Every structure is written in C-alpha cells, then in structure tokens.
Amino acid sequence: MEASTAPQTTRGRVSRAELGQQIAKWALFILLLLLPVLYGVKDLATDGDLSRLGENIKDGLSNGAILALIAIGYTLVYGIIELINFAHGDVFMIGTFVSFTMFGTIGLTIATGGLGLVLGITLTLVIAMIACGALNAMIERVAYRPLRGAPKLAPLITAVGFSFILQNIGLLWLGGSHQSVPDLIGSQDPLFTVWGVKFIHGDLLAAVVTIPLVVLLVGFINTSRSGRAMRATAQDPEAARLMGINVDTTIGLTFLLGGMMAGAAGIVYALYQTDAWFFQGFQAGLLAFTAAVLGGIGNLRGAVLGGLIIGIIQQISDNRIATEWTPAIVFAYLVLILVFRPQGLLGEQTREAG
Amino acid sequence: MSTAATPAATSDTAPEAGAQAGGQGPAWRSRALAGAVILFAIVLPLFYPSGSGFIGDATQALAYVVMALGLNVVVGFAGLLDLGYVAFYAIGAYTIGWFGSGFFSKADVHVGVGGFAASLPGIHFNFLLVLVLAIVFAGLLGSILGFPTLRLRGDYIAIVTLAFGEIIGRVAVNGGNGVFGIGSFNLTNGRQGINPIDKPDLPLLDPFTTLNLRPWYYLALTLALIVVFINLRLRDSRLGRAWIAVREDEVAAVSMGIPTVKVKLLAYSMGAAMGGVAGAFLGSFFATVNADQFEFSFSIFVLAMIILGGLGSIWGVVAGALALSFINTYLIPDVFNGVPSKLGLDFDLTQLGFGIFGFLLVIMMVLRPQGLIPERRRQIELTEGLEDHDAVYDVEVEQ
Question: Alpha helix (H) ranges present in A296-341?
Fold first, then answer.
C-alpha cells in the first residue's frame, strides 16, 4: 500500500511523504508496544518473571479472537461499499442472545457430558451464524441498498438507527440487566500451563472456533468464484458489473459472511464470558472497529491482527489500569491511529486508497 | 443544479438573501408567520399553571432546540457528521456544575451573585457569566476535538467524534476519583453527580424556583430565539456559504480559495458553543449534573432531531427538536405508555424510546432523507443521485 502512495520512489531518494509515512508507522508500533513493555519491565522488577504479562497477553489473544471475528465483518463491508456498518456490533450481540436462548431450548446444562455438549454447541454455532448472517443481509437490504446513490452520510445514519433498533430488540428479549449464561465448558477451568501461563478451557474454545473459521473464510474469498466476485466488486463495482457480476447479490453475500462471523463471535463470547447483555455489542463493536482500522480497513489479515492487538491492549488495561477506563484508553488509541496513520498497520484496501 | 425539485415549504424569514432562501411567499408573509409563532410562544405559558409539567417539558424542548441548532451548524451546514455532540452538552453542564454550585466547597468565590447563593461556600458565578464561560469552554473543546478530524474523510470523522464523545462520557462517569486512573482528584463526582446547582438570578424575571417554571421557560425561549437568529445570519453569511461549499465539494471549495481548516474549525466551535449554552441551562434547570446524562444515545437523540426536521433547515430543525422532545418527555411516558399493556404485551414503552428514535432515523433516511421541512439546496443534494443508480460508484475524492 505504501507503494501506491509514492510509486515512483527509488531506493536512494526517499520522498518526504514516504519518510513521514514510515515515521508514523513506527510511531504507531511504539505506541502499541508501550503498555506491554512498560508493564513487562515493571513485572521483571517486582516478580522477577513475565508470567503475569504472559497471562495478560494470553487472555488478550482469546478476547482478541472474538474481536477479530467481529472486525472481519466491519472490514469486509467497508472494503466493498465503504460504509461503517454501525449495527454490526449489535448483530454480534444478537449472536450471543441466540446462543443463550438456544442453550435453553436444546437443554444444554452444566451437567451435559462430552459428546452431547460438543454436538449441542456445534448446532448452536451453526444456528447463531445463520441467524446473524441472515440478519445482517436483511439490514443491508432494508437500510443500505435503497441508499446506494445517496451521500455517504445517509447510510451511516441508517446504520446508527439500526444499531439502536437491535439494542432495543435485545432489551426486550432478555431485559436490561446482565444475564448469566450457563458455564457449559467450564470456561475458567485450567487446561495446561506453559511457562507459568495458565491456559483455560475458554482459550481452547476461542482458538478452535476462530482459527478454522478465519482459514475457511480466507480460502473462500481467495479461491471461490463468489469470493473473486467480492474482490472484483470491492476494486471497481462498475467494471465488475460490466464483467457480468451481480453486484447487489455480491454485496448481500458480503454482509451475510460478515454477519456469520459476528454470530460465531457471539457464541464464543457467551461461552467464554458467560454473560449476555443488550449493550455488549456497542462497546465490542467500537473495539472491533478500532481493530479493523488498526489493521488497515478493508484488509482481512489486518482485521485479525488488529483484533488480537486490541484484545491485548484491552486486557492489559483491564488488569493493570482499571476496567472502567479501558474504553476510554482504546478510544484514545482509535483517535491516535486515525489521525496519524489512518491506513493502519498493514495498509487499507479500499478504492479510495487506490 | 436542477430547479425541478419541489418548492420548499419553509417559512424563511430572510428571503432577501437571494438564491439560498427557500421561502415561497413575499417577505412580509414569512415575517408575519415568524412573528405570530413567537407571540404564540410568549403567551403560551400563561394558559398553564406556573408549576405545570407542560411548562417544564416546553422549557426542556426549547433547550433542546438550542442544542439541535448547534449540531445543525456542524452536520447540516458544514456536512461533518458529529456523533459525539454529547461532549459539548457535558462540558456546558459541568461548567455550571463547577462554577455554580457548592461542589468545590473549599473554595469561596462569588462573582455577581446575590441572595442565598452568596452565603454558600463553593464557587458561585452569575448565570450569565457561566453562560459566557460555557461558550468559551465548549467552543475551545469543539476546535480541539475538531482539529484531528480535519484530514479525515467523512465516515472517519463520525467515528473520531464518537470516540471523543465516549472518552468525555467515560471521564464524566469515572472522574470522581482521578482521571485515567491517575491521581484521585474529584472532577465530576461520577454518577452521584454535582448538585444542587445554582438557579439563575436575572433581572426582569421572577425568581427561578422549582414551583414557578415560567421564568425558566422565558429564559429558554430567549436563548432559543437568539440562537435561531444567529443561525439565520450565519447561514446567509460569507462563512455560511463557505460551509455549504465545503459540504458540497471540498476540493472545489479549496480551489475557490476557501480556507477549509479555518472554516471547519469554526463550524465545530460554533456548534459546540451552542451545545455548551444548552448544557449550562439544562444543568441549572435539572438542578443536577450527573454522568448518566452524557451517554452516546443522547448524541443520537439530537441527531434524530435534525434528521427529522431536515438537515440544514433551521425551521425544520426547530420543529424536529420540539417534536422529538415532546415525544420523549410527554408522548412516550404519559400518553402511549398504556398501549402495550392494552395489546397484551408486557413491557415498558419508555424502555423503547431509543429504539423508536433509531427506527425514525432509518425510516426518515430511506423514505424522506430531506426531512419534514427541507432546506432546498440540501434536498436537491440528497435526492439527486438516487435515480442514477450508478452514481455511487464514482470515487469520491476527499482529502
């Protein structure tokens, strides 16, 4: 992506613009490393080892996996129609709610053993993904498609509107207070310990759900016919249409895929945090959007990387500073990233970026 | 630009401004209409008992008019979608919290206050002085928050302003014990809030009490009228035209020699100042400033007002603010709250308030994006590309 901003730069003479870009990029890296390094040094001074920081990072990666799944939805949608799908965080919330309700419906409890549990959770995962995918595609059809030709402000406002509608649906569904989800997998139970870092069941679940899904999604987008259509539409919708691609269907498919990832994130969240709340989507959505921007919006790998990094920052801030300041700290990061390096770590892949 | 758009039904009071004015009739007719509306607003509270809930609701609605007009400067005139407007409400409210209450009880500062407040500990400034401070603080905060967004494209502006609004909201909630976990200074008193707040003490008006709401109403009406007037003059000024130029095509605006940085920052700070005034007034009116008032949903509430009325249309925004405020304070809790139980449903309609506003945003944007009382120029802008379905795919060149 750097190449596209200053394509004619030769090796010997680095243009000032590119130099600025490089400085901003490294400044961003330093900014991101600030918290872990700071607390790592502190840990070494007090405990003599890094196990506490390691634990923070491990927890951060698991939380980050959830954020990464949500961030993929933001980044896919932004890549293809350049819209911040504001309602996406709330689609994730609906995913958690569907999972919560499904656990009750198919009768999964803490007592359910081995195979039944795996089958039940897999079934719930599939249903949550389908429900959220369909919901996201429906939102696109109702709220964004009619506004394809309108100024950018208009779909953004309907997106905010839909976010509120979904929050209210959540409010009516499970009420205004936190609901505790049955701890089906024994989320906090220890699994094994490496270098003083305790791994728990929740970490395993996050990895087992996230990694295959991301691999499948990347494979789908890179190799399948529909995936190619998505990439073509993202690059140039008009040319894609001339090549015989049904642009509207492709955009719908993008929303479907994004929603499915959010649904998967929803069930992981339900099992990992054992909590469901109608407002959870708002904050998670903003964190995930921050992650998508951090990685470079429109960039799938960037979204995953950004999700993991934001997860770690969030965890360190939760654990070391104070939980109540975490959102403010992450938002401060968001502002700094947008101001100094809006194209993110891995570079954005949108039409505007070229 | 096409002139085939339906004629706007605005009651524009300044049609002599030429092409921009969307008034239908001659000047005297819209002036007479505005005069009649003002007269109606002045005599209205006389028909209600002085402590009635209706006057309270109306006062609040007028304060929201001020706030909505402020946001209209940023979003409607300059086209910068600001989702963190609640920050300016907060700063205005905390201004009166800090400079008009006994919150900093160790200090003993009194400026221009008489009567009861003069004998209390804490910092007590005259209400008008607090308004000036609120304008200054909010205006400064507006340009500080606006500064980082200058280089960003439209939707990133929305996110950055939202993030700022959330940061301010977090500071409000958690600022009772240090800021960002540093120190332990009590800046905001968190959810307990700062109370009681001084009541204004102004000449010509009756004493401000909770039992006599008429002076509150007249103060709010005065503020609203001043802000409407400022908005009208701004819109027709050189600066107002510069905002519209920046909104419609920033690149063209720059090439015409418009200093976009200055123009955008002025939009932010002027919009913010109006929000600050409304915030200071509401802080005093509610007699408390607490962190729960400054949530993201409030930004959307104000945004819904200007969308409902019509982005950029001053009279539309006034109508939208009055309508949504009454829906929020009167219709939903008092009139329609019995409906769900009559239908055999078990929920509290007040819980649904923001879902209803969200629905309104979607419906308005899809069915009537120009708002109820549209501004003509904006209407053309919003409806133009829709027939031409491919227009989306023109790459917008924004810097």
Answer: 300-316, 326-340
How many residues are there in chain A?
354
Burial B182-218 (b: 16+ CB within 10 A, else e): eeeeebbbbeebbbebbbbbbeebeebeeebbbbbbb
Q: B310-339, pLDDT tens digit by residue? A: 888 888 999 999 988 888 887 777 777 667
**Environment class of residue B3 by beta-carbon count within 10 Å: exposed (0-12), middle (13-18) or buried (19+)?**
exposed
Bridge partners, residue A180, by sequence: A275
**Is residue B289 within 8 Å of residue B130, measured between CB atoms?**
no
CA distance A330 to A318: 11
| pLDDT tens digits, B202-227 | 777 777 777 788 888 999 999 999 99
Let me know: does A329 contact A317? Beta carbons within 8 Å: yes
Averaged pLDDT for residues B149-169 = 83
Interface residue of B144, B357, B362, B377 to substitute, partner A, most A CBs within 10 Å: B362
Min Cα distance B291 → chain A (Å) is 13
This prediction's pTM: 0.82
Nearest to residue A135, comparing CAs of A265, A256, A283? A256
List chain A residues with pLDDT less than 50.
Answer: 1-10, 354
* End-to-end CA, chain A: 8
How far are the Cα atoms of A16, A27, A337, A344, B152 from residue A23, in angstroms, in the given order? Answer: 10, 6, 13, 13, 19
Q: Which structure tokens are listed for A207?
A: 């990895």
Give the distance from residue A132's alpha carbon to the nearest chain B alpha carbon, in angstroms: 19
For residue B161, the chain A residues in CB contact (below 8 A) are none
Report ipTM for this prediction.
Answer: 0.79
Q: What is the mean pLDDT of residues B186-204?
A: 78
- CA dist A17 and B361 (Å) reads 41
Give CB contacts under 8 A, 24+ apart, made by A54-58: A54/A195, A54/A196, A54/A197, A55/A196, A55/A197, A55/A198, A56/A312, A56/A315, A56/A316, A56/A319, A56/A320, A57/A312, A57/A315, A57/A316, A58/A197, A58/A199, A58/A203
Kindly list the residues from chain A whose CB atom is less than 8 angstroms away from the CB atom of residue B391: 149
What's the pLDDT score for residue A14?
63
Q: What average pLDDT score do residues B190-196 get?
A: 80
Given its phi and psi angles, is residue B31 left (phi above 0), alpha (psi -120 to 50 degrees) or beta?
A: alpha
Both tokens assigned to B40: 């109606």
Tens of pLDDT, residue by residue over B62-97, are 999 999 999 999 998 998 888 889 999 999 999 998
- Best mutation site among A165, A171, A314 for testing chain B: the one with the most B CBs within 10 Å? A165
